[in-house]
Structures are given as C-alpha cells and as structure tokens.
Amino acid sequence: MGDLLVLLLPEVIGLIVTPGAVAGCVLLLQSHRPIANAGALFTIRDIVNPT
C-alpha cells in the first residue's frame, strides 16, 4: 500500500496544483497586457520544463 502511495504522489500533487495554475492563467489573461503576460508565462514554463 505504501508503494502505491509513493507511486501516485506526483499525480496527487498535480491535481492539487492544476486549479491554481488555471486560475493564475485566467487572471493573467484578464489584465491590461494579456499577450505579454501569456508570453512571459509560456517562456517561464519552457525554462522550467523544457520537454
């Protein structure tokens, strides 16, 4: 059972973080500079996770 919890931990973390990330994206796109903010967001994402 412990092995299963260790195996599923990344999935659980992803499910916890995803709604916050989506809310952050929506807030960025509703600002005065949505294109610049979206570009910055994708640039940071590519730097953090280049795959």
Written overview of the protein:
This protein is 84% helix and 0% strand. It contains 2 helices and no strands. The longest helix is centred in the N-terminal third of the chain and has 28 residues. The model has no long low-confidence stretch (mean pLDDT 83).
Compact overview of the structure:
This protein is mainly α and 51 residues long.
Overall 3D shape: elongated
Uncertain runs with pLDDT below 50, 5 residues or more?
none
Number of strands: 0
Q: Report mean pLDDT, rounded to a whole number.
A: 83
Write the layout of secondary structure elements.
Elements: H1 2-29, H2 34-48
Key terms for this structure?
mainly alpha, 51 residues
